[in-house]
Amino acid sequence: MKETMLWINGQWQDTKESYDLKSPYSGEVIAKIAKASVQDVERAIEGAQDAFLSFRKTTAYERAEILYKVVDIMRHRQEELAEILAQEAGKPLSASSAEIDRTIATYQFAAEGAKQTMGETVPMDAAPGAGDRIGWTKREPLGVISAITPFNFPFNLVAHKLGPAFAVGNTVVLKPATQTPLSAIVMAEIFQEAGLPAGALQIVTGSGGELSDTLVTHPFVKKVTFTGSGKVGLSIKEKVGLRKVTLELGSTSRRHQ
């Protein structure tokens, strides 16, 4: 049986506790998943902050090349990745393969977007005495991003968070859904092979209820991105303070009676 570990500072880290991951199709235990502690999350966030100080200095070309390599690796491992998704999410292989196709496209969009980060010039002559001056803006990476993802499209919704963050030089602490951690864990291997610097991606698995407070309130975290239920999203919004936050909540197919 597969036993997973946390991905912290470019190394696999064991934990004292774990939980059983069961197939939603058969109920069979398919893996034992490392259960992170609050201390593990703190260490991951601190490592992401250290990695950010150097990763932010990489060029757009270098970041785009990492993402293009991720695309290439995923294409070569597409069948394997679809099987991981089918196993942990209970999707048919046809649907799993379609999600991998979409995920590859998402990382390709991010790679292309890495070279499109632009500022703007600002004419200053609206103010007296500044007729011969021009201001300009430049976009800068924020820092450490806490990313919390759901179970329904685990490869692609992780890609929606990792791809854009890495494209512009941010680092990420990723907490995948408890039902679908395997798809996130395999991305650690892929990003390492693609040349992402150690510490730029941290993966902590376990209970969202136990870990979310640290993920959204730690002082090194500059933005929180969450996809999931409205109830949890509202709770996160109340805790993030002045940090930036992106929330994708609820389901457009849900009927409210």
TrEMBL record:
InterPro entries for this protein: Ald_DH/histidinol_DH, Ald_DH_N, Aldehyde_DH_dom, ALDH-related_metabolic_enz
Residue ranges of every copy of the Aldehyde dehydrogenase domain listed in the record: 14-253
Keyword list, A-Z: Oxidoreductase
Cross-referenced Pfam families: Aldedh
Similarity field: Belongs to the aldehyde dehydrogenase family.
Name of protein: Acyl-CoA reductase-like NAD-dependent aldehyde dehydrogenase
Organism this protein belongs to: Lysinibacillus parviboronicapiens
Phylogenetic classification of the source organism: Bacteria, Bacillati, Bacillota, Bacilli, Bacillales
